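Tutorial handout. Part one gives the primary structure; part two gives the three-dimensional structure as tokens.
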Amino acid sequence: MSHDKVRVGVIGAGFIGRIHAAMFSQLDEAQVVGITDFCLPLAEKAAVQYGVPRVWDSAEALIDSNEIDAVVIGVPNAHHRPLALRAFERGRHVLLEKPMAVSGKEAREIYEASRKADRILMIAHQMRWETLSQQAAQVAQSGELGTVYYAKAGIMRKKAIPGWGSWFTRKNDAGGGPLIDVGVHVLDLCLWLMGSPRPSQVFGATYAKFGPRKRGIGSWGTPQWDGYFDVEDLASAMIRFEDGATLQLEASWAVNIESNHAYQIHVAGDEGGISLYDDRLVFTGQKFDRSFDVEVPAPAGENPDSARLALSRHFAECVREGRTPVSDGISGLINSTILDAIYRSAGSGEIVKLDWSFLDRK
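Part two.
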């Protein structure tokens, strides 16, 4: 780049888009030069709120502008692919909200477009940047767990269906329900702690027991009671990896199960283990023929925006320095391919086998 600051354009002025605008506006490494939204009044309001100098009439116009080095895509899932592909065609770097795409096929198209354009692609998995997640990753990457062979990851919300009838609960717009909405967070974090193994087989099941009856409604999002619900409200899966390890995954918006944590991740190695919750971290092992647990509580008084700010800074630094992001296109591709395989397995009742040979040919 010929200038010091990464010039960022934000696509989407809803909740997540405004968060990105707020985070990048705090960085010395970046400058938010423009914002847009399908609903222009939302973009105009966000521009005033975060001091963004320009509102573009459309995402396409923002992407095409030579005033932009990188775009943040924070819009409903079905729009990720076309906007990301256009951004790479125009030579822009991309910070893409999770999930990467609504299907494994679309995720692969985005990944290959980023490779062809030789531009940075980063998936916005902010949970990797939380303090406890970073501490867990340090231990996992140190080799202290030994060989990781089993893991469990879950985010089981009891009454939290978001925006009933809106894009959240419509398969054509979202790609699915809680699995693709919040399950992708714990899936990504768990895979990272496992050492990013490649999945080989997936078996999954999905259920819709609350949403079709307009029950289990949460406080997130704005309901559209004239809309519809055609996604799952609970999903579970078993994932097997090329190295023989397995991962049990579950995610729900509504379920009659007691839960004391927003999420739980357990990673078991033959020398040690990690249990990570939303509010604490536990390292487990055995010494002198005795088992032990070492608990690390969440830092007191931590800024809730610190993880997202770290994520934004990392993206800006990767763009400036040409570095590969921590949550890169490969990680997003693997996540989306697993989610897609779970949905396909749930539909067929069969195990879905995955082939990654195309990555080895690159």
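Part three, for discussion. The chain has eleven helices and 14 strands. The chain has two domains: 6-127, 130-306+336-353.
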